[in-house]
Amino acid sequence: MCPPVEETNGQTNANGNGTASGNHDGFTGVTTRQNPHSSHKSPYKPVGDFLSNVSNFKIIESTLREGEQFANAYFDLEAKIKIARALDEFGVDYIEVTSPAASEQSRRDCEAICKLGLKAKILTHVRCHMDDARIAVETGVHGLDVVIGTSSYLREHSHGKDMTYIKNTALEVIAFVKSKGLEIRFSSEDSFRSDLVDLLTIYSAVDKVGVNRVGIADTVGCASPRQVYDLVRTLRGVVSCDIETHFHNDSGCAIANAYCALEAGATHIDTSVLGIGERNGITPLGGLMARMIVADRDYVLSKYNIKKLKEVEDLVADLVEVNIPFNNYITGFCAFTHKAGIHAKAILNNPSTYEIINPQDFGMSRYVHFASRLTGWNAIKSRAEQLGLQMTDAQYKECTVKIKAIADIRKIALDDTDSIIRTYHQNLHAKEEVPLLPGMTEEEKKKFAEAEKELSGEKEKRQIEAAADAQAEVPAAKKTKTATVA
């Protein structure tokens, strides 16, 4: 996991031992040119649409509801309070908690969280049933999210009710909750496998009686972005209230679906930290932030304290006993790590060449992996300068050849590479050379010599060919092109 990093003048701090902000074996934090990411509007920002809410959305954070359904989750009251406070510091608009009708402890937990005095509004998620509603309105929540299955699968095999019953019950619950002065959202469950006429009929009915939001739920994670856009766009033409969306990630579309829902006119997105939830979970908070900061950086930075993302993810990961995935959005080990030589050179000059997100916005570091056969001399030069070792470009290139040769025969770590760079520099001024990497076996030494010779030979061959080509009456490149045309 990448730890936070201090900012200086728009650059990433990095010290001589390559551990500017954590232990990344084989990696180094790099200092890049000032203001590496331009402040102008993103070229990827969508074309303006009067229905789009990409620049005006709200987050309903459901780690304390949907997240409790994660297979490995057990949150006692102390843990719930820690999570709620962390989410509030992050700046989420709403925090959704488990139904107080689920258990007596759930009711007490709900009441305790409501008494914390958080800036975020507290919602609870309950069945569309008067018994649940009566319990929930007495807990101190700001609003209720009521839900009932509308697909033929759930109507037949879950609650056994028809659409007439669903409509009448929804209207009764909504009227009751509104009489208590609380927010109310009505959501269908399994929306994308429900009949469209049934959906629009029930949504139209609840909108007319003043529901604050209607909800669309991809309960089984079957929807595609195109399906989401079409349904939300259609619904936007039917209701005047806000539209909340809830996307499961079974088929890997939760983030894309959330974004397309906003483009189509949705106003609220359900998330959970690290995406934890039932089965494969839902739209992850960090993943949504990654998508939205590319779309409208100014809006995201003005509304959410995104430097708190790593802190809240570490907290939840620890509580549910999982590791942050290596490729996790923003906070994963590899999120801002660059390895290929061509990439490293460009990143050192201007990180925008291979980064669409500025890690410093999230308090993160970027790293260059230089302990591998893929490294380039620009990365080695940067590392040598961090170590306080000055050489000519030709010497950096020769040192790089040796590092690549050793990396071709064995895996090398950060300390190995630093040792090679230091020893190479020392040998430049020593009367007698010492081995670049102590402890190599005879077989490794033999392979190293062969690899170094092969790499040097390839380089010399390219140089000879380039020189000959430059002196030729017709350059080789033009000969090849002519031959191809002929």
Automatic annotation (TrEMBL):
It comes from the Eukaryota. GO terms for biological process: lysine biosynthetic process via aminoadipic acid. It is an enzyme of class 2 (transferase). Its EC number is 2.3.3.14. Its cofactor is Mn(2+); Mg(2+). Pathway: Amino-acid biosynthesis; L-lysine biosynthesis via AAA pathway; L-alpha-aminoadipate from 2-oxoglutarate: step 1/5. GO terms for molecular function: homocitrate synthase activity; metal ion binding. Residues 447-464 have a biased composition (Basic and acidic residues). GO terms for cellular component: mitochondrion. Keywords: Amino-acid biosynthesis, Lysine biosynthesis, Magnesium, Manganese, Metal-binding, Transferase. Residues 1-45, 447-486 are annotated as: Disordered. SUPFAM superfamilies: Aldolase. Residues 8-23, 466-486 have a biased composition (Low complexity). It catalyses: acetyl-CoA + 2-oxoglutarate + H2O = (2R)-homocitrate + CoA + H(+). Residues 57-310 form the Pyruvate carboxyltransferase domain. Pfam families: HCS_D2 (PF22617), HMGL-like (PF00682). Belongs to the alpha-IPM synthase/homocitrate synthase family. Homocitrate synthase LYS20/LYS21 subfamily. NCBIfam families: LysS_fung_arch. This is homocitrate synthase.
